[in-house]
Specification:
By secondary structure, this protein is of the alpha+beta class. It contains 20 helices and 21 strands. Strand 15, helix 11 and strand 16 form a beta-alpha-beta unit. It starts with a helix and ends with a helix. This is S41 family peptidase.
Length: about 525
C-alpha cells in the first residue's frame, strides 16, 4: 500500500457504510406471517446453531456466531445492506435522530481530569453556567479524575434519563474553591449544519454534514436567516456528507424547485415505482443555487445534487460524487440489533441510476477512492470515465451521465496542498485540537475582548505558535517532525480549531473556507450571474 493510501482518512469507509443508508422503518407489502414462516433454509440455520450450542466440545458464544452469520449473509448482497449489533444501536440511532440526552459538553481527558472544551450552545451545561476550561472533578459524588478514567466511564456518569439532575463539582482557574453546579439532563442537539453565513453580500452558504431527522428543521431556519440577510444565491456544501434519510433530502430539494417538479423516483424488484414531486412551499425557488460535492458526497447528498442538476436548477461544483443509488430500510431483529436492507434503487428525474458497480466485492467498492486518485480523475475531469449508453439530457438539453456518481457541471480539482501525509495524520489524530486547548487554557482571558468577526478577519497565527506545535507533537510521537513544507496549512487549521473553541457556531468552517479553492470558484461563478 502506498504512503498516500496509508495516511488518508481510514475511517471514511466505515463512515460511508454507517451513514449512507436511506429510509425509515421496514414496510414490506407482504404480511409478516408470509415473510417469516418456517422453511428449510431457515430451519437449517436454526438447527446448526442449536447443534453447536448443545454439542460442540468447547463453550461457544452462539450470539457471536449469529452476528457472524448475519454479517456473512449481508456481505453477499450489496455494500449497503448492513447489520447493526445491539451495542451500537443507541449511538447510531442518536446520530441519525439528531440529539441525545445528556449535559451538553465536549470534553478532553487532560492530565487525569475532565476538561471542558466547550459547552453545547443552548444545552444544559451552558444554561447552568459551566464554561470552557472548567475541570469536572465529581459527578453525584463520584470522582471523575485519576488514571483509568475512560471515555466510556465518563459518559456513563454524565449521561442519564431526561429531566434527571447531576450534581457537579468543578475546578475553575482563579477560583479559590470548587464550584457546585446542578445540571438537569435534557435533549442535546447533534447539529447537522456545520456552518451558515454570508460569503458575499448576496451569496449565502450552508454546510450540511449529514441528513438526520433534525436536518431539515435546522436547514430551513438557516435558509430563512440568510434570505433575510439578503441572500439571492445559495452555496449548499455537501462535501464529505455521507447521506442519511431520503425524505429529508427531498424536503431540502423542495425549497429550491417549483411546484410539481420531479425530485426522484424509486423502483423495487417487483417493478413498483414511487415518484416524489416538489410542492409549492419552497422559499428559494427563484434564487440561484450552487451545490458543492466531492468523492465522499453520497446517497442523500446525491439525491439533492441529482434533482437540482436534472431540473436545470443552479450549478453543481466540485468532483464526481460517491455513486450510491440504493435505498435501505431498517428492521429490528428483536434483541436490540437491527438490519438495514437494500429494498429499492432510486433514480434522478432524467432516469439516471448513479449507483456504481459492486461486482468486485465490498473491499474494491470502498477502495474506489484510491482508484480515482491513481487514475488522475480527482485532478483532471477528462479522466472521468463515462459511458454513452448512460447518457441522459435535462429539459434544457444539458448532457448528464449515470453509472457511478454525479458528475459536476464545473470541475474543481483536489487541493493537493492539503494532501500532505503528515498533515493528514495530524488532522485525523486530534492533535491540533488538543494543542489549541492547552495553549488556550494558559491564557483564556487574553481573548475576552476579541469578537468573532475580528478573529476571522485579523487574527494571525505566528511562526512561534507553529514551532510550539511542532515541539508538542515531537514530545508525543517521539520522532522528529517538520512543518516546513506545509506551515501555512498548519497555521490555517490551528486558527480554525482555536476559533471553534472560542466561538463555536461555524467558526471552524469560516476560517477554513478563506483558503478553500472550491469556495473561491463558487464566489467567482456567483459574481458572473
Amino acid at each position: 500500500m502506498s504512503k498516500t493510501k496509508q495516511y488518508l482518512p481510514l475511517f471514511l469507509g466505515v463512515a460511508i457504510a454507517a451513514g449512507i443508508f436511506i429510509g425509515g422503518k421496514l414496510n414490506f407489502s407482504d404480511a409478516p406471517d408470509r415473510l417469516f414462516t418456517s422453511n428449510s433454509k431457515k430451519d437449517k440455520l436454526n438447527r446448526l446453531i442449536d447443534y453447536i450450542d448443545y454439542e460442540y466440545v468447547d463453550d461457544v458464544n452462539t450470539d457471536s456466531i449469529v452476528d457472524v452469520t448475519v454479517n456473512g449473509i449481508l456481505e453477499n448482497l450489496d455494500p449497503h445492506s448492513v447489520y447493526i449489533p445491539k451495542e451500537d444501536m443507541q449511538r447510531v440511532s442518536e446520530n441519525m435522530k439528531g440529539d441525545f440526552v445528556g449535559i451538553g459538553i465536549s470534553f478532553y481527558p487532560y492530565k487525569d481530569s475532565i476538561a471542558v472544551i466547550r459547552t453545547v450552545e443552548g444545552g444544559p451545561s451552558e444554561k447552568s453556567g459551566i464554561m470552557g476550561g472548567d475541570r469536572i472533578l465529581f459527578a453525584n459524588g463520584d470522582s471523575l479524575f485519576g488514571k483509568g478514567m475512560t471515555n466510556e466511564i465518563i459518559v456513563n456518569k454524565l449521561k442519564g434519563s431526561i429531566d434527571t439532575d447531576v450534581n457537579l463539582k468543578v475546578y475553575r482557574r482563579g477560583e479559590p474553591e470548587l464550584l457546585n453546579f446542578k445540571v438537569t439532563r435534557d435533549h442535546v442537539p447533534i447539529r447537522s449544519i456545520d456552518a451558515a453565513y454570508m460569503l458575499t453580500e448576496t451569496l449565502g452558504y450552508i454546510k450540511i454534514n449529514r441528513f438526520a431527522e433534525s436536518t431539515y428543521k435546522e436547514f430551513k431556519t438557516e435558509l430563512k436567516k440568510l434570505k433575510n440577510l439578503g441572500a439571492t444565491q445559495m452555496a449548499l456544501d455537501l462535501r464529505q456528507n455521507p447521506g442519511g434519510f431520503k425524505n429529508i433530502a427531498e424536503q431540502i430539494v423542495d425549497e429550491f424547485l417549483e411546484d410539481d417538479k420531479l425530485i426522484l423516483f424509486t423502483k423495487n424488484k417487483r417493478g413498483h415505482i414511487e415518484k416524489t414531486f416538489a410542492t409549492s412551499k419552497g422559499i428559494f425557488e427563484n434564487g440561484n443555487v450552487f451545490v458543492l460535492i466531492d468523492e465522499n458526497s453520497a446517497s442523500a447528498s446525491e439525491i439533492v445534487a441529482g434533482a437540482l442538476q436534472d431540473n436545470d436548477k443552479g450549478t453543481i461544483v466540485g468532483r464526481r460524487s460517491y455513486g450510491k443509488g440504493l435505498v435501505q430500510r431498517e428492521m429490528e431483529l428483536g434483541d436490540g440489533s437491527a438490519v438495514r436492507l437494500t429494498v429499492s434503487r432510486y433514480y434522478t428525474p432524467t432516469g439516471r441510476s448513479i449507483q456504481r458497480s459492486y461486482e468486485n466485492g465490498n473491499r474494491d467498492y470502498y477502495d474506489e477512492y484510491f482508484s480515482r486518485l491513481d487514475s488522475g480523475e480527482l485532478l483532471d475531469p477528462e479522466k472521468i470515465q463515462v459511458a454513452d449508453s448512460l447518457k441522459f439530457k435535462t429539459p434544457k438539453g444539458k448532457v448528464v451521465y449515470g453509472g457511478g456518481g454525479i458528475i459536476p457541471d464545473v470541475f474543481v480539482p483536489l487541493d493537493m496542498s492539503m494532501q500532505n501525509e503528515t498533515f493528514s495524520y495530524l488532522k485525523q489524530t486530534g492533535f491540533i485540537s488538543y494543542f489549541v486547548f492547552e495553549e488556550l487554557d494558559k491564557q483564556r482571558e487574553a481573548y475576552d475582548n476579541l469578537t468573532k468577526e475580528d478573529f476571522i478577519n485579523d487574527f494571525v497565527i505566528t511562526d512561534d505558535v507553529v514551532q510550539d506545535f511542532q515541539d508538542y507533537i515531537r514530545e508525543r510521537i517521539r520522532r522528529k517532525i517538520s512543518f516546513l513544507t506545509f506551515k501555512d496549512e498548519v497555521k490555517l487549521y490551528i486558527k480554525a480549531a482555536l476559533g471553534e473553541q472560542l466561538f463555536g457556531n461555524g467558526t471552524y468552517e469560516e476560517v477554513i473556507n478563506h483558503q478553500d479553492i472550491m469556495i473561491e470558484e463558487v464566489i467567482k461563478l456567483s459574481e458572473a450571474y
